[in-house]
């Protein structure tokens, strides 16, 4: 079994080749969500993936992050073949190489902001200086004064910032964000995306975000549309208007 390389704090290339994922529909037919998807993302690149609801955006992200297994195809992060990992090696990969941010922040209500950020570090045994790094991350997302606050004491945007800091605690090479602004109002969502892109620019991480919001997607270095199981590029003009891509797929 291949052992994942110990990459810490290094943005990594992502290569997807021939990826397919299907599910059995209630009527017994096969529903193909991903159909021979291929894509290369360079280390340090920021990429947004858009597409209609049910198009498979989250499935694609889950396969990349090893939360789901594809039916076929290859996913490589750096020099690691992700689809071949199992057991402890797979858990090690998820804990150290990939950071996840979801639409729902998934913070534990009984833990403070600092303790929530430290959770992924506990999965790898807890390290010296982890608390210091967690405080620095919370400071970096504008929550230096809220480290001892519990989730119910934070706004929706603040909770999502804590989730972003938590995703970065183990210095992953890949950051995967699944609709991170979906539960936020327009201004707070804009602020979270700006923060995410600032972090990607200042830290060695490759960032991939799934979103319905074309305004947010236009701010990323590259945008791809997932439709009918395939990926295609989306082009924007200097005003953020779609030149070539999915019509009517805007969000608020």
Tags for this model:
seven-stranded mixed β-sheet, 11 strands, 26% strand, Rossmann fold, 7 helices, 252 residues, 29% helix, alpha/beta, four-stranded antiparallel β-sheet, disordered C terminus
CATH C-level category: Alpha Beta
Helix content: 25-40%
Order of helices and strands: EEEHEEHEHHHEHEHEEE
- Which segments are poorly predicted (pLDDT under 50) over 5 or more consecutive residues? 1-7, 248-252
Structure, explained:
- This protein is α/β, with parallel strands linked by helices and 252 residues long.
- It is built from seven helices and eleven strands.
- It has one domain: P-loop containing nucleotide triphosphate hydrolases (Rossmann fold), CATH 3.40.50.
- A hairpin with a 2-residue loop joins β9 (222-227) and β10.
- α4 crosses α5.
Secondary structure elements and their pairing?
Blueprint: E1 14-24, E2 30-41, E3 46-50, H1 57-64, E4 72-77, E5 80-81, H2 87-96, E6 98-101, H3 113-122, H4 130-140, H5 156-168, E7 174-178, H6 186-202, E8 206-210, H7 214-217, E9 222-227, E10 230-236, E11 242-244
Parallel strand pairs: 3-8, 3-9, 6-7, 7-8
Antiparallel strand pairs: 1-2, 1-4, 4-5, 9-10, 10-11
Helix pairs in contact: 3-4, 3-5, 4-5, 5-6
Brief overview:
The chain is built from seven helices and eleven strands. It has 252 residues and is α/β, with parallel strands linked by helices.
